[in-house]
UniProtKB/TrEMBL annotation:
Keywords: Membrane, Transmembrane, Transmembrane helix. The chain crosses the membrane at residues 12-34. The keyword Transmembrane applies. CDD domains: PASTA_pknB. Residues 41-108, 110-180, 183-250 form the PASTA domain. SMART domains: PASTA. This is PASTA domain containing protein.
Length: 257
């Protein structure tokens, strides 16, 4: 055999050996080392950590081959204890690999300060929405005689009136003093029978009373638009804001549209 053929044979053998070694290394890396390193085929169910205290979470996760990472942004819930888990990522029930980091958001030790909004002269329903949006809690509602029905007259914190812009802890309880729609001024119900309906309404509103239901009664004996009945009757003691119902004449042949 010539030297050239011998050289070619040796090169071929070396190439085969190199390919075999390379294949062996690749097989070992992908089929043995990598699955072992990444725990291929092994998964852990993420537990529900909400309500757990910070001191409990790390040990609890370590027992399940998971790690804990606290997020920089803390939350705050007034009802929850300080340093308990409020949120987590991944969510409970998710399947993850062992030694996966579970990111948790903790409840702050101290409530952040917020500026008190202005609720005075705001309808009660709107005031309650504002309180909730600011992260505050609605406390007691105290009704007092006032013509403003369900209108906020005062806002209180810890028993004292609080002004707009004053800083208070988030989650604080705000008590509201609200008008019951009836003033504390006592007056005598005027006599509006025989008056024109517009004149009677002007007198009712001008007296600090509230116009109630207007009922129309067919009659041929009283001019159209005349008040023929009122409730409460004249002479009765009334409080500001109380309602007055009236009955007004209309022609018998008049058609309602």
């Amino acid at each position: 055999m010539s030297d050239f053929k011998v050289g070619i044979k040796k090169i071929g053998i070396h190439l085969l050996i190199i390919l075999a070694i390379t294949f062996g290394l690749l097989f070992t890396f992908f089929q043995i080392y990598l699955p072992s390193y990444t725990h291929h085929g092994e998964s852990v169910t993420v537990p529900d950590l909400e309500g757990f205290h910070y001191d409990e979470v790390q040990e609890y996760l370590a027992g399940r081959n998971l790690l804990m990472e606290v997020t920089l942004d803390s939350g705050f819930e007034a009802e929850a204890k300080p340093l308990v888990v409020l949120k987590q990522n991944p969510k409970p029930g998710a399947k993850v690999k062992q030694e996966r980091k579970i990111y948790v958001t903790l409840n702050a030790k101290n409530a952040p300060l917020i500026k008190m909004p202005n609720l005075v002269n705001t309808p009660l329903k709107n005031a309650q929405e504002i309180i909730s949006n600011f992260g505050l809690v609605r406390g007691d509602i105290v009704y007092v005689p006032d013509i403003g029905h369900n209108a906020v007259l005062k806002q209180k914190y810890r028993g004292r009136e609080i002004k707009e812009g004053l800083e208070i802890p988030k989650g604080s309880k705000i008590d509201l003093v609200v008008g019951d729609g009836l003033g504390n001024q006592v007056l005598t119900m005027p006599n509006i029978i025989g008056m024109d309906d517009l004149e009677a309404e002007f007198l009712i509103l001008g007296s600090g009373l509230t116009m109630g239901e207007i009922n129309y009664v067919e009659t041929d004996t009283v001019p159209k638009g005349t008040v023929i009945k009122q409730l409460p009757p004249s002479g009765l003691s009334m409080r500001t804001g109380e309602r007055v119902d009236v009955w007004v004449s209309k022609l018998a042949q008049e058609i309602d549209f």
